């Protein structure tokens, strides 16, 4: 729930996305028919209501010369009142709602909703349904204020009571999977006896050696990747300054590579696709610190293959293009990165490619980039995007089946319980 609300309250979230997420919030948390204490005991909904006040004001201040996005009107006049009414009419005890702790937000909410009801946009509606919906919501909020002895500013309380009622008064990925697989493999070994004890010692020793080597190799791998990411940022650094290849690489490399991702070469090479997508994502992520061996390898690679345009230490690179995440996101979007993410998912790729494409899409949207949001929204609203959502659904189903087969129970607090999957198991995972 906190993730859904975090998107809704983000200042750069576009109305189209808000409409989708608030419907999700309403269906899964507010009107789910369950005693969901998280909805009422935590402050997520109050954060949403506080954010709603800003959106309501945009509608109230709208005039003939300042038209408002129709999607924002739907969000403010349809979804917000519905969520508010269901939330405050839920019958949950006052202690869970924490009304007194958020009295200022409730006061502001009542005031903004009344202003919305009296606004030119609402009063000029031919149908009474919108006015009836707002009237019902405002009076429920007003009733809540009176029950909690919350005084409304000025004559607002009197104005609400005098409102005309003639027209009617009435929303952790792959780590656990590896842990479960390791646990199942260890169980399947079922080591017993002297020889098996020797085998166990050998296996444990080999595991420790691989872990140690993995730590050493990780820094070298990160150093290599940091160089590749910098080359993606500045491909011209591979060529002599001011030469023809220098200028050509500067203007066309990333765009050409994105276009070539549709070719048969990438379609038939899973590892290559993952590798390129991962480096594109690296352009949008924070640089990592390297240990001494990693720095040495990075310096050697740069001095061997690149000119002086790239800093030897990634943490010292202060070029505006590298530091400005929004600029990089917009540049990649202009090169066709948003379309690439959608196409990669729609082609029913192998799981590793699907995962990298999803992570790249998340990185493109990181920080609430409105330009990328609008671009993705437009493309995913087209009829041809049905395949995209079908692929997402298929992967959800596959993950659900894996959870069942592994005997996992995810508790309300988010903890994972590892249950047996034997025939005589009484694990609650069977009920998933």
Could you characterize the architecture of this molecule?
This protein has 432 residues and is mainly α. The chain folds into three domains: 2-161, no CATH class; 177-381, no CATH class; 396-432, no CATH class. It contains 22 helices and two strands. The chain has helices at residues 2-8, 15-30, 37-41, 44-60, 70-88, 94-97, 103-118, 120-123, 129-147, 156-161, 175-189, 193-233, 244-260, 264-267, 270-282, 292-305, 320-323, 325-335, 337-346, 351-365, 370-380, 386-406; strands spanning 408-410, 416-418. A two-stranded antiparallel sheet has the order 1-2. The longest helix has 41 residues, at 193-233. The two termini are 20 Å apart. Mean pLDDT is 77; it is low at 164-176, 315-322, 411-416 and 420-432.
Helix content: 55-70%
- Across the major sheet, the strand order is 1-2
Query: Could you describe the largest sheet, including whether it forms a barrel?
Result: 2 strands, antiparallel
Helix-and-strand structural type? mainly alpha
Shape: elongated
Number of strands: 2
Low-confidence stretches: 164-176, 315-322, 411-416, 420-432
Distance between the termini: 20 Å
Measured by DSSP, the beta-strand proportion falls in: under 5%
Number of helices: 22
Keywords: Receptor
InterPro entries: Ryanodine_IP3_receptor
Protein name: Inositol 1,4,5-trisphosphate receptor type 1
